[in-house]
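Deliverable D4.2, example record:
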Amino acid sequence: AVFSFRNSIRNGESHTTELLVYNKSKNPLWVRVVANPVLDPQGVQQDVVAIVRDITEAKMNDELQFKVLSAMAREEPLPDVMKLICLEIGRIAPEIGVSIRQFDEQGCLPLVAEFNLPAGLIQSLESLAERSILKKMDVKESIMLNFTDPASDKGDCIDHELSQSFGFTAGWVNTIRSNNGRCLGTFTLYYRENHLPEVQHH
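Output generated by the structure prediction step:
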């Protein structure tokens, strides 16, 4: 894409392309670049005017939806679809960790799929799955957890101290709901910095 972009500009042609770049915080961003050469009266290129637009949210949503819908159309098993979601999110935002957990008939929360989580943390999530927190999560859309603050540890089925030992400082727990609003499970993002989720993580 970059090579084609340079060739077009060098030849005095307008060009539009989409590029994956990184901001100062080293977070990935998708941008659409529209570049137009500026020519003098003799047709000699003097400058280039470029418009750069952040399309991260739209790009990631489109790619994720396409891959998930394609997997569902192929009637792949639900656990495989969940794993695909985790892997795709990890490809889009490799700096974070992801887990998807599903409530069982007892209201417990076993792990279904994950990305970028250390083995020790996975084992902890599996062992904590025996705690029933369905009623607690059923009334909330999301919970933001600060692993570095002992006072924020409310027994939300995530070991704060262990998560911090693996470099994660915050977690964003979201409920997965059916069409009628019933809580089916949780989708959690694990951050290495204490902040609210970036736009591309929504």
